[in-house]
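Extended Data, panel c. Modelled sequence:
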Amino acid sequence: MIRSALVWMGFAPDPAFAHAGGHAHGHGHSHHSHGDDDHGHTHGVIDATIASTAKGLWAIKWSFVILMLTTLAQVAIVLLTGSVALLADTIHNFGDASTAIPLGIAFLFARKAATRTFNYGLNRVEDLAGVVIVGLILFSAVYAGYVSIERLFNPQPIEMIGVLVAAGVIGFLGNEAVAVFRIRVGRQINSAALIADGYHARVDGFGSLAVVLGALGVWLGFPLADPIVGLVITAMIFGIVWQSARAVFTRMLDGVEPGIADEIKHTAEHVPGIVDVLDVKARWLGHKLRADVDIAMDPDLPVAVADRIASHYERELKNHLPALTAVQIRTRAAAV
């Protein structure tokens, strides 16, 4: 849980290359299996191991519903109490819920066939939706920070402390429900990314409990407790913005996680007839991966045999990297 939180906040390396796989190899190479803790959480980026299964999409849809209901309940209480800490937490929970939005948009466009203009289809819409989500979360963070700072210099009485405490508890229970749900479904479909999302929701629940601490601080005679908690939660939202923007723009610029190339080279070790992997290039189109690979073979092999080896390699790649939807394999003669 702690590692997931650090990755999400951008303070630990993000081993997101595992998002392309989530596949534990049955070749006795345990160092290539991906565990539950190998995934960070990124708003606006769709994980391939979740998007590739109907149950994963189903989990995302219901997570969206639960978090949105939690957010709406908190909005009503913000209007009643005027708590900026609760406002910041509400914005935070809305940011979590909105992760499902690019997923829905992307799948609507991904269903459209490629055309003479859009030869690779419209999967890039997912990246554009991610940029929009990051922008909205950034705006929300700035607004929450502004309100918290303004309230810090101009304290105002917080009304209905008991209701405010209840709102914090509602936020915690909503996030915990999503956490349990995502972790359970993630284990059922063997998706480390969905499990990590569950742990992220659990960490967010502690953010909602911070609202309770702020309310108790106000009740004990420390009116600044509310805006201080609001600033803490605002800092958490800025952490989301930084980590998400880094991932989204990396993909938009055709960047991929270095581990993907390592996985492609490793897979060649399980295909008899491949002497070496000379070059690897890969790129994301939405949550789908495409790759170009140059491999070296014995120059004396018949063309038909070389074709069978290349076909075998392609099948192995798609088994090792479920997100890989298209791969172009070029063969070269190995140096004698």
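The chain is about 60% helix and 10% strand. This feature is highlighted in the accompanying rendering.
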